[in-house]
Specification:
alpha+beta; Ubiquitin-like (UB roll); six-stranded mixed beta sheet; two-stranded antiparallel ribbon; 9 helices; zinc ion binding; AN1-like_Znf; metal-binding; Znf_AN1
């Protein structure tokens, strides 16, 4: 077998090309240079016949004008592709008028713009809908005679209800009635004590306006509830029992200097505070064991070095309170949002 047997020789030169080009018109073999050169007369004649005089190198698409009288715009099928007979006509038909089949421009494409002789397309669809509806009614009357003449009433048109400021709620009406009754009773009784009692009752009905300290305390409680973790690791988060949310830390110095500074300034300077929660029915003694285990603190046999829990509660607009918690009671006695501190020797104000 020869080395040159896989290839083919060019028709115009002696080059043997292993990837030859075959002309689709004359079916002769050419190399890469002669498949589109001037020496290849087949392609030259084809180019001369297909190119336009005005625009050399561009194929003549067969431009057609809109069939609407007086319109000189190019039709949609002419813009879309070649419109010669037998070539590309299937593609162009898709953009012609469905009624008369004429070729129109974009402006005169719809049936109403070029005076189409065929029935309007939307009328045909509506007629088909009416025909389907009549057939459905005929079937219903045959199989369900009780519903033959049934007419489904249309719902009434909706109206926007505009609430004016004069409309009062039921609770506001009750409050107004109660205030009027109190005012009548106060006018009927001539004693000054009755008037004072009625004024106090009216003041209770008014909504309480929170002070700045109350609002700051509410924000503090929300932060604790959002980031608190259970003090007992095996506690269920989906428990329905009431919980106590608090912050906790340790101050194991005998003099309890950090606790005293907090009572004076309201700020804790003894290190990082942890946030946690427990069920209200958990004993405080168990809380002491859990905090001791978290801190890995050793217990002492000396009674003066025994461990206790203190509750530091900064009540809004009141004096700060330091309460020593009794180990036998439940956690519900701890105020929400307070600071629980583990100390040695208990709380002694005289130190």
């Amino acid at each position: 077998m020869s080395i040159l047997s896989p290839g083919s020789k060019c028709h115009l030169c002696s080059l043997v090309d292993f990837l030859p080009f075959i002309c689709p018109t004359c079916n002769l073999v050419y190399c890469q240079q002669h498949i589109s050169s001037n020496l290849h007369t087949c392609t030259q004649q084809q180019l001369d016949q297909s190119t336009s005089i005005d625009r050399p190198g561009k194929l003549e698409r067969g431009k057609t004008i809109c069939e609407m009288k007086g319109c000189d715009r190019e039709s949609i099928e002419s813009i879309g592709g070649f419109v010669a007979e037998g070539e590309g006509e299937g593609i162009a038909r898709e953009v012609r008028c469905r009624g008369c089949g004429g070729a129109y421009c974009v402006e005169h494409r719809s049936q109403s713009t070029h005076s189409c002789t065929a029935p309007l397309d939307h009328n045909v669809r509506h007629d088909a809908f009416l025909e389907r509806r009549d057939k459905a009614r005929e079937i219903i009357s045959q199989r369900f005679p009780d519903f033959r003449d049934r007419v489904i009433p249309k719902p009434p048109p909706g109206k926007d209800v505009v609430k004016t400021q004069s409309v009062k709620t039921q609770t506001q009406r009750k409050e107004d009635n109660r205030t009027t009754e109190l005012s009548k009773s106060s006018s009927g009784s001539g004693s000054g004590e009755g008037i004072c009692q009625d004024n106090a009752a009216v003041d209770q009905l008014k909504p309480k306006i929170k002070s700045k300290a109350d609002r700051l305390w509410d924000i503090h409680l929300k932060k604790i509830r959002m980031t608190a973790e259970p003090l007992l690791k095996l506690a269920r988060n989906d428990s329905m029992t009431e919980r106590v949310f608090f912050e906790w830390t340790m101050d194991l110095m005998q003099i309890q200097e950090n606790v005293r500074k907090w009572k004076e300034s309201g700020k804790w300077s003894g290190g990082k505070l942890e946030r946690g929660w427990v069920d209200c029915d958990m004993p405080i003694g168990k809380m002491l064991d859990l905090i001791t285990g978290r801190g890995k603190i050793k217990r002492s046999e000396d009674q003066s070095q025994s461990l206790h829990l203190l509750s530091l509660y900064p009540a809004p607009d009141e004096e700060r309170q330091v309460i020593q918690l009794e180990l036998s009671k439940s956690a519900k006695m701890i105020p929400q949002g307070s600071l629980v501190v583990l100390v040695r020797g208990g709380w002694n104000q005289g130190i």
